[in-house]
Amino acid sequence: MNASAAGLLPDVSGHFGRYGGRFVPEALIAALDQLDAAYRHATADEAFQAEFGRLLRDYAGLPSLLYRADRFSAAAGARIFLKREDLNHTGAHKVRNVLGQALLTKRMGKKRVIAETGAGQHGVATATAAALMDLECVVYMGEVDTERQALNVARMRMLGATVVPVRTGSRTLKDAINEALRDWVSTVDDTHYLLGTAAGPHPFPGMVRDFVRGIGVEARQQILDQTGALPDAVAACVGGGSNAIGIFHAFVGDEGVRLYGFEGGGEGVSTDRHSARFSGGSPGVLHGARTYVLQDEDGQTIESYSISAGLDYPSVGPEHAWLHDTGRATYLPVTDAEAMDAFQLLCRTEGIIPAIESAHGLGGALAVAPTLAEELGREPTIIVNLSGRGDKDVETAGSYFRILG
Amino acid sequence: MGLTEVFEKARAEGRAVSVGCMPAGFPTVDGSIAAMVAMAEAGIDAIEVELPYSDPVMDGPVIQRASEIALAGGVRTKDTLRAIEAVAGTGVPVVLMTYWNPIERYGVDAFARDLAAAGGTGLITPDLIPDEAHEWLAASDAHQLDRTFLVSPSSTDERLAMTVAHCRGFVYATAVMGVTGARDQTSVAAPALVSRVRAATDLPVGVGLGVRDGAQAAEVGSFADGVIVGSALVRCVLEAPDEAAGLASLRALSADLARGVRAVTR
């Protein structure tokens, strides 16, 4: 059992080895300390855990199913199980994190939440939790994203949230996070920053991981119940990294289980249009943590690209950086084309339209299956985290496959 | 003259030091050098150069815009060092304010060495807290550079004491809970924060975030050792129709700020 599996990471100051930490203005430290303390108390509080569990079960529809996808498996040459986070309320794994953090917000006596969103999924999830728990909600969203995700903007507004288009920098997710941080520096007394992924300054990476780690806990029990054995591999897409760390974490101590994280390979890592922080980036500091980032030789952030808005981010959660460097998990890029092939294959073989983010996990599984089969000398068993559903991506996918109109 | 001497001289005169900020490379490298020299000539006591960064989370819209213009113009870390060298060469103390990643990318010790060689007095680090600063503490000791960490109205007494204990040169007190940008009113929290800092250290205390004119500089100068002005100066250049007009407006505001800190004696 290594340190992460034993629950020892992050350390008390929020480090995963050399990664993580707090690279934020001093003005935010008191709020991060308050959050850390509130979270620790909540973790030990049975009433909090019971309320969180009740909401996950009765409101979000958890535990999510683990489904053996036979027709997709036949095409993959591997026994593929899908962790059906796409069936959760609001359509993705993110509901676990927002419910946990919204409960904490109430517990801290704060009345307002702010959030960043790229494609709008985290924004919708936050607006949902805010409506449920009677919190004021402001969502920062890059102007470019508000245009390409107009439906999600409408969803957030229906739920009572204010959506603020961000017009600085590249006008995408990275700039939405900058703007949310700027808001938080000014409003930290009554506002919680409901960060959408297992990244950012301590305590977010460890706290968000703990809110979503039920994905892996459930999947581990479900695969044992269904097959009597642990899987050969667990696969997930990695944007900020919450769905991946959520399904990985329960398996980190299982040495025979390979962990694969698939990044947005965009048009290829050899081009300048990708979101592959591990294959195309380097260690640096962005958005409050030391981790792998896309940066130029001067340490200026390089804009990421992926067909998937949720993977289109130049940084990644610090625990993934640590899992990468220790070799416990393997991170590989999956190009737009590979992801969209897998997207179509899942639609046609299983009648499931995945989020394009999750299609990267599927595409990656298809790519590693043959090597894994050869290595094991048998058909491998792979759990893929189907982290979200594809309703939000119908326009992007329809345009990619030229089937609109 | 070093920054410490400037603070000492001003203290002897019973007044605060004026510190004027400008991103290097805005609107061009030479343009930023001209702007900073003009500020100093008009009476600003010390210059804070900001290294343009792609993700400046402590900065408001004016400095964000100026940083974007600088980066779009192709400014590099080495250009910032060149600007520091040029401005420091005129005799005014120059301190660099920078987000952390560009320094880490350059190599912390290598950057400290090159900053010292360029004549910079040290770093102001808005997103580096002492808790994460082991490399910088060592490099600043090795190259005899000042290090200014920020304290905030929300800092606990314990953190404030720890932070100022790691500062050298001066302490930066953020007067308001918020990002940079000129405001109609400076903060009521600032005097209280400054007195908390004074209880913990003998170092000079600079107050920034929100000062836009001589009257506000006088007000802040009545309780702080340094009055740090950024966005209001940057706006002179940003909103000017041409370079000459920008410099003229910059000189006028700089002179107003210089008069402001001299209007109140303590």
TrEMBL record, chain A:
<dbReference type="InterPro" id="IPR001926">
    <property type="entry name" value="TrpB-like_PALP"/>
</dbReference>
<dbReference type="GO" id="GO:0004834">
    <property type="term" value="F:tryptophan synthase activity"/>
</dbReference>
<comment type="subunit">
    <text>Tetramer of two alpha and two beta chains.</text>
</comment>
<keyword id="KW-0028">Amino-acid biosynthesis</keyword>
<dbReference type="InterPro" id="IPR006654">
    <property type="entry name" value="Trp_synth_beta"/>
</dbReference>
<keyword id="KW-0456">Lyase</keyword>
<feature type="domain" description="Tryptophan synthase beta chain-like PALP">
    <location>
        <begin position="64"/>
        <end position="387"/>
    </location>
</feature>
<dbReference type="Pfam" id="PF00291">
    <property type="entry name" value="PALP"/>
</dbReference>
<keyword id="KW-0057">Aromatic amino acid biosynthesis</keyword>
<comment type="pathway">
    <text>Amino-acid biosynthesis; L-tryptophan biosynthesis; L-tryptophan from chorismate: step 5/5.</text>
</comment>
<protein>
    <recommendedName>
        <fullName>Tryptophan synthase beta chain</fullName>
        <ecNumber>4.2.1.20</ecNumber>
    </recommendedName>
</protein>
<dbReference type="InterPro" id="IPR023026">
    <property type="entry name" value="Trp_synth_beta/beta-like"/>
</dbReference>
<keyword id="KW-0822">Tryptophan biosynthesis</keyword>
<feature type="modified residue" description="N6-(pyridoxal phosphate)lysine">
    <location>
        <position position="94"/>
    </location>
</feature>
<dbReference type="InterPro" id="IPR036052">
    <property type="entry name" value="TrpB-like_PALP_sf"/>
</dbReference>
<dbReference type="GO" id="GO:0005737">
    <property type="term" value="C:cytoplasm"/>
</dbReference>
<comment type="similarity">
    <text>Belongs to the TrpB family.</text>
</comment>
<comment type="function">
    <text>The beta subunit is responsible for the synthesis of L-tryptophan from indole and L-serine.</text>
</comment>
<keyword id="KW-0663">Pyridoxal phosphate</keyword>
From TrEMBL, chain B:
<comment type="function">
    <text>The alpha subunit is responsible for the aldol cleavage of indoleglycerol phosphate to indole and glyceraldehyde 3-phosphate.</text>
</comment>
<keyword id="KW-0057">Aromatic amino acid biosynthesis</keyword>
<dbReference type="InterPro" id="IPR002028">
    <property type="entry name" value="Trp_synthase_suA"/>
</dbReference>
<feature type="active site" description="Proton acceptor">
    <location>
        <position position="59"/>
    </location>
</feature>
<dbReference type="InterPro" id="IPR013785">
    <property type="entry name" value="Aldolase_TIM"/>
</dbReference>
<comment type="pathway">
    <text>Amino-acid biosynthesis; L-tryptophan biosynthesis; L-tryptophan from chorismate: step 5/5.</text>
</comment>
<dbReference type="GO" id="GO:0004834">
    <property type="term" value="F:tryptophan synthase activity"/>
</dbReference>
<keyword id="KW-0456">Lyase</keyword>
<dbReference type="GO" id="GO:0005829">
    <property type="term" value="C:cytosol"/>
</dbReference>
<keyword id="KW-0822">Tryptophan biosynthesis</keyword>
<feature type="active site" description="Proton acceptor">
    <location>
        <position position="48"/>
    </location>
</feature>
<protein>
    <recommendedName>
        <fullName>Tryptophan synthase alpha chain</fullName>
        <ecNumber>4.2.1.20</ecNumber>
    </recommendedName>
</protein>
<comment type="subunit">
    <text>Tetramer of two alpha and two beta chains.</text>
</comment>
<dbReference type="Pfam" id="PF00290">
    <property type="entry name" value="Trp_syntA"/>
</dbReference>
<dbReference type="InterPro" id="IPR011060">
    <property type="entry name" value="RibuloseP-bd_barrel"/>
</dbReference>
<comment type="similarity">
    <text>Belongs to the TrpA family.</text>
</comment>
<keyword id="KW-0028">Amino-acid biosynthesis</keyword>
